[in-house]
Write a structure and sequence with these properties.
Number of helices of chain B: 4
Distance between the termini of chain B: 39 Å
CATH topology of the largest domain in chain A: Alpha-Beta Plaits
Number of strands of chain B: 0
Radius of gyration of chain A: 25 Å
Distance between the termini of chain A: 34 Å
Number of helices of chain A: 10
Structural class of chain B: mainly alpha
Largest interface: A-B, 18 and 22 residues
CATH superfamily of the largest domain in chain A: Reverse transcriptase/Diguanylate cyclase domain
Order of helices and strands of chain B: HHHH
Oligomer: heterodimer
Chain lengths: 319, 110
């Protein structure tokens, strides 16, 4: 689960201010300096939307009364764009009729602050929105994480595979995936009990995570099965990476059953560039599964890798 | 809604953060005064409304609640303006008093 986005909770939250008045930028710059946030600013709705796409702020403070594209329109644009939809927006405005407030809440704002600012209130509202957004982000991530292994779960895998596939096709980049299955795992459970089996699952997950690079996406597919998406990775590179995972796993001495090593088999499939991605992501997964099956058939504790055309990938041994 | 107490946001010149804001605002004010005078001369109500709106929302936060209130009144009157000449003259009068108010901060009497 070495995906970078998972670490965002630990960093200083970025707050984006969209207001046409330089006065407001100066006030907030001074008054929010003591908060542990990083404040960035834009002076109109269009630039604000672009900045939100680029810097992915944790919170947007949005003025309603702006020339050209007003706050209502900006809010609509932000909420219509899947990439900015989930960023909470606090509306700042000198207009403070109930009608205005209802309108912005209907458009998806989380809060409303009236100008002129009462500074203590402003800080409290910013803090509370940031807290809420951090919790929501954490919940969303939890819903994507497998509880036992700490890796991403299958639902997340399905979404990301499609995304990474589309990206590779669009940019003509390599992409590989692998399917990993523990060998004779049932006998670990049967012989040493399910807690020992759980230890193996989370231990192997840890090995996978250690060997993965930051761009790889490792997921628990179910039971004793894992899947990995390796963007920017040719099937040959993927085979090398998966073989490292295989070797690390084999080398572990398990405290609950020191004499019983755990091995894994792995099926890899991929393409050297986007043009090689001639099948659907689902068909790609089936191929990885077929390669895994063949790795099992030919003796287990091995990695079988092919390209999407079915050509076997062999790693030239150095020396 | 009840109007906020105009003194509630007044700033403390001895506090460095407050002083920074007061200084910034006083630095910006001559530009706004010139712009208001120009807009009043050209009967540019849109421009007057924009400046009044910005001063209304920000002046109290910089420690100038009286400017904020005067600007709020001006903005409100521009918004509810109908085309009669006497109304227009009244607006001009309000602009003049807002300008004098601003200048009283810029050039305080000794």
């Amino acid at each position: 689960m070495s995906d970078q986005s998972i670490n965002q909770l630990d960093t200083t939250p970025v707050v984006l201010l969209i207001d046409d008045s330089q006065f407001v930028h100066r006030i907030l710059d001074a008054r929010l300096r003591s908060e542990s946030i990083s404040l960035i600013g834009e002076h109109d709705g269009k630039a604000g939307h672009e900045r939100a796409l680029k810097d992915e702020p944790s919170l947007i403070l949005l003025d309603l009364d702006m020339p050209v594209m007003d706050g209502y329109e900006t809010l609509r644009v932000l909420k219509d764009d899947p990439k900015t939809r989930d960023i909470p927006v606090i509306v700042l405005s000198g207009m403070d009729s109930s009608q205005d407030k209802v309108a912005v809440f209907d458009l998806g704002a989380v809060d409303f602050i009236t100008k002129p600012f009462e500074i203590t209130e402003l800080r409290a509202r910013v803090r509370s929105s940031l807290k809420l957004s951090a919790l929501l982000k954490m919940l969303a991530q939890k819903a994507q994480i497998d509880g036992l292994s700490g890796l991403f779960n299958r639902v997340y895998f399905d979404d990301r595979l499609q995304e990474e596939y589309d990206r590779a096709v669009r940019h003509g980049h390599p992409l590989s995936i692998s399917m990993i299955d523990l060998d004779h795992f049932k006998s670990v459970n049967d012989t040493y009990g399910h807690p020992a089996g759980d230890t193996v699952i989370s231990g192997v997950a840890q090995i996978i995570q250690q060997q993965c690079r930051s761009i790889d996406i490792a997921c628990r597919y179910g039971g004793e099965e894992f899947v990995m998406i390796m963007p920017e990775t040719t099937p040959e590179q993927a085979k090398i990476l998966c073989d490292r995972i295989r070797q690390s796993c084999e080398a572990v001495s398990w405290s609950q059953h020191p004499s019983r090593a755990v091995t894994l088999s792995c099926g890899v499939v991929g393409a050297d560039n986007g043009e090689g991605l001639t099948c659907t992501p689902a068909a790609m997964l089936e191929m990885a599964d077929r390669n895994l099956y063949e790795a099992k058939q030919s003796g287990r504790n091995r990695v079988k890798a092919t390209d999407i055309g079915g050509t076997l990938i062999q790693i030239a041994k150095a020396g | 809604m009840t109007a906020p107490d105009p003194n509630a946001y007044s700033l403390d010149i001895n506090d460095p953060e407050d002083a920074e804001l007061i200084e910034y605002f006083l630095g910006e004010l001559p530009g706004r005064v010139d712009a208001m005078n120009a807009a009043a001369t050209n009967d540019d109500l849109d421009q007057l409304k924009t400046i009044a709106h910005q001063l209304k929302g920000s002046a109290p936060s910089f420690g100038f609640p009286a400017i904020g209130s005067a600007a709020a009144e001006l903005e409100g009157n521009i918004r509810s303006l109908n085309d009669s000449v006497s109304d227009f003259e009244a607006i001009r009068g309000e602009v003049d008093s807002l300008v004098s108010l601003c200048q009283s901060y810029l050039f305080p009497k000794q």
